[in-house]
Write a structure and sequence with these properties.
Helix content: 55-70%
Mean pLDDT: 87
Largest sheet: none
Structural class: mainly alpha
Shape: elongated
Distance between the termini: 19 Å
Number of strands: 0
Strand content: under 5%
Low-confidence stretches: 147-158
Radius of gyration: 17 Å
Length: 158
């Protein structure tokens, strides 16, 4: 089933896909800010990595937080490209890479739902689920949105 086939008449699937991509990007930017704060020494270790490192993260985990930030930023690029909002040169690869993003979001959702850290679960499970839902909507969008912002050619919802 695609976003288009599940759309009620009168809705533009390109807009739905774009809104989902923006939701993904904003939520991910929040995660990046948190990761960079951890890397800078913020004492929020209880809310990350299963709460294994309460307080400031040790140096290797701070480096890991930076690496995670870079990976998350790359996933934002993939999702925005697939939705036709940015990085048009990535569009061909984004067709399949977006499914990697969905898989990462699914794993992240499960891990945040089962973490032993109640604080981490309460804060991050809803965000992880939002990332999963929004990336899935973008992945199911079967056509890349056109650069002019209109509906794709042949769009039955137009």
């Amino acid at each position: 089933m695609t976003v288009e086939s599940s759309m009620p008449r009168g809705r533009n699937p390109a807009i739905v896909t774009r809104v989902a991509a923006v939701i993904y990007a904003v939520a991910s930017a929040f995660v990046i800010a948190f990761q960079l704060a951890l890397a800078a020494g913020a004492p929020w270790g209880a809310f990350a990595m299963g709460g294994a490192f309460p307080g400031r993260l040790p140096a290797p985990m701070r480096v890991a937080a930076i690496v995670q930030s870079v990976l998350i930023a790359s996933m934002i690029g993939v999702v925005l490209s697939r939705a036709g909002l940015a990085l048009p040169r990535w569009s061909r690869a984004a067709r399949w890479l977006v499914w990697v993003v969905v898989a990462v979001a699914a794993v992240g959702s499960v891990l945040n739902l089962i973490t032993p850290s109640a604080g981490e679960r309460a804060r991050w499970a809803p965000i992880a689920l939002a990332l999963l839902a929004s990336s899935t909507v973008v992945a199911l969008g079967s056509r890349r949105a056109p650069p002019d912002g209109g509906a794709p050619a042949g769009d039955p919802w137009r």
